[in-house]
């Protein structure tokens, strides 16, 4: 299964390819643009072309783009909601221009409006995305969240409902499953039995074939803590043993994985990649 990390786009998106290659990644994730700003500067076509060329040469698959943190597809405020849809479409445009396979997004927060409102809101947003004709070459993936505060999207059945609705709107969306967020939201996979039932639940609730990418992160918070705090692989509350059970599952083992573990320097990524590979090699030795 392809394994990679989230790499920086400092100096331009095309610069990220060399960073991923240097770390020995098979897959990679980037932000399409500054993740904490509403200011949008279009990506020059030459830069997009350079990214595509370098990526092809490096043989990286999949390329995942993560959306801006300000985008809130469940915002009750109409201004923010429409601004979010607009920015989402622009970022999907960037992802398609660079030939990315997936665009991963969080589902935002409906504040005190509740999950039923959030579900309607995000479905409306995705309908507008579908109508724009975007999302055909880059598939939109919805990421499960940790369930902190009024944030939406921690439940797999909710994500499944959105995916089914999007399909009816003509948008073939999928799931990006974050192990830290899931654990924090109360989904346990600490024993082989729990791992098996979670793998089956992902398929049953999000839909067969929906799971496209795994964000492989350990968790600083405990099971059900709702804390979105990533930890180094094997060093958090999830632990290497649980990852071994989960990643060994036949429904999980071929899904590409991206690390979003804490990072001060490349050494941190290299250490986490090595630990993830060690766990995956352990899988081969299991009966
Ligand atoms: Zn994630
Ligand atoms: Zn997170």
Predict the CATH topology.
TIM Barrel
Helix % is 40-55%
Superfamily at the CATH H level? Divalent-metal-dependent TIM barrel enzymes
Number of domains: 1
Strand content: 5-15%
| Low-confidence residue ranges | none
Question: Would you give an account of this structure?
Answer:
The protein is of the alpha/beta class and about 290 residues long. It has one domain: Divalent-metal-dependent TIM barrel enzymes (TIM Barrel), CATH 3.20.20.150. It contains 9 helices and 10 strands. About 45% of the residues are buried. One zinc ion (ZN) binds near residues 143, 178, 215 and 260.
Short structural summary:
By secondary structure, this protein is α/β, with parallel strands linked by helices. The chain contains nine helices and ten strands.
Task: Break the fold down into its secondary structure elements and pairings.
Blueprint: E1 3-6, H1 15-22, E2 27-31, H2 45-58, E3 63-66, H3 78-97, E4 102-105, H4 114-131, E5 139-143, H5 156-169, E6 174-178, H6 179-184, H7 192-206, E7 211-216, E8 218-219, E9 230-231, H8 239-247, E10 257-259, H9 266-285
Parallel strand pairs: 1-2, 1-10, 2-3, 3-4, 4-5, 5-6, 6-7, 7-10
Antiparallel strand pairs: 8-9
The chain binds zinc ion (2 copies).
Residues 178, 180-181, 228, 230 line the site of one zinc ion (ZN).
């Amino acid at each position: 299964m392809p394994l990679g990390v989230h790499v920086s786009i400092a100096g331009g998106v095309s610069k990220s390819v060399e960073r991923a290659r240097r770390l020995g990644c098979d897959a990679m994730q980037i932000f399409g643009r500054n993740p904490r700003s509403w200011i949008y500067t279009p990506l020059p076509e030459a830069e997009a072309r350079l990214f595509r060329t370098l990526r092809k040469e490096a043989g990286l698959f999949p390329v995942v783009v993560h959306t801006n943190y300000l985008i809130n597809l469940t915002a009750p405020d109409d201004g923010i909601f429409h601004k979010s849809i607009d920015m989402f479409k622009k970022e999907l445009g960037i992802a398609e221009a660079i030939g990315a396979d997936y665009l991963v997004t969080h589902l935002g927060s409906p504040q005190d409006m509740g999950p039923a409102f959030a579900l309607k809101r995000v479905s409306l947003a995705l309908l507008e995305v579908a109508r724009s004709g975007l999302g055909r070459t880059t598939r939109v993936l919805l990421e499960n969240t940790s369930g902190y505060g009024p944030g939406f999207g921690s439940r797999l059945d909710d994500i499944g409902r959105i995916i089914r609705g999007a399909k009816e709107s003509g948008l073939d969306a999928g799931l990006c499953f974050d192990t830290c967020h899931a654990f924090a939201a109360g989904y346990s996979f600490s024993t082989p039995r729990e791992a098996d039932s979670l793998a089956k639940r992902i398929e049953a609730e999000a839909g067969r074939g929906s799971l496209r990418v795994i964000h492989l992160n350990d968790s600083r918070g405990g099971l059900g803590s709702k804390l979105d705090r990533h930890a180094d692989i094997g060093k958090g509350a999830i632990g290497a043993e649980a990852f071994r059970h989960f990643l060994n599952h036949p429904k999980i083992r071929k899904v590409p994985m991206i690390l979003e573990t804490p990072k001060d320097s490349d050494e941190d990524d290299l250490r986490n990649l090595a630990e993830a590979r060690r766990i995956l090699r352990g899988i081969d030795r299991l009966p």
